[in-house]
Amino acid sequence: MTHLSEGSQILDIDLPIGVDGLYHSSPKQTVPIQISSWFLILPMEKSMPKTGFFLNLGFQAMIPLAVVLGLLLNNAKRVEMGLGPSLRASWIFNKVLRGVLAQPFILPRYLSLKMMTIYWLILISGFFMSNYYTADLATMLMNSPKGKPIRSWEQLRRANLKILISQSELNFLNELLTKDYLDKFVDFFEVADSEDYQRKRTALNQSYAYPATLTLWPVLEESQKRLETPIFRKSEELVLAPFIIMTMPLPKNSIFKKSLYQFVRRSQEFGLFQQWYSSSFKEAEQLGIVRYKKDNEALYRGIEFHDFYFVWIGYLGGILIGLVAFILELIMYRKRRV
Fold first, then answer.
1. d(C-alpha 291, C-alpha 203), whole Å
2. Which fold has domain 2-47+146-286?
């Protein structure tokens, strides 16, 4: 756009068809068109695999609950028998664990009100726990939770995600930011020729992040409307230039200045700019520049055997621990008899 600004002052150009940012070097006579910003658009975080659902349901919260209820139940029983409190309650944890997991267990007869209250707490906790985890798992299966979003430059570096940029935009970034500040993030950028850069950004290639403005982003956002979930998002944290005034440069003493001011003001009041931004996607689609993105894979699938990977590991690990404990008990028993 530098050539546009200079041409409007030097060449015989009455009305340049184009806009540029407002900077110190901009012509004195300009018409403000839009307030914009320059930010990164990032690929959406990948969904959590189904194998990870069972690790994120929060079953670890049941462990302290089972321990507290087990100790409470055991000591209440000891008090009724005239014994002192004790931390040893291993024999009763079977009932507590089954109750918390909403599984059946044998309820002792002739319980006092105090003991019945404790068993009632175990019953209620199992009811709420089972319903909560069932609903949570069903929600995850229908709408898989996303991974941790990228909200800082350090997270972008750890994700090993490059920012694809053209040489002209990198030169503009050098002018916009100080050299010391830019040197800290120079490894983020990968320079491509303008044609390859525009093609990948328009196609929303998820191998890179891209800089974009509020003029381009509505077009890219429109192209994702037919997807079940968007594949790119606008970053609210990674912003290269938070405030840019887009202006139309005019030659000195232009006779069109007053008329253009009125045209821009009335267009903004009646919402014509927003209408033009939305209709520009349809025009670009007809020209074959952009197109609606489509889902490449099935949106939903049932649970398969390999989705229970961590469940099987936990199950086999529990059997192995129980088998080792049983063998040790047999050895101890034989040594005592000898």
1. 8
2. D-Maltodextrin-Binding Protein; domain 2 (3.40.190)
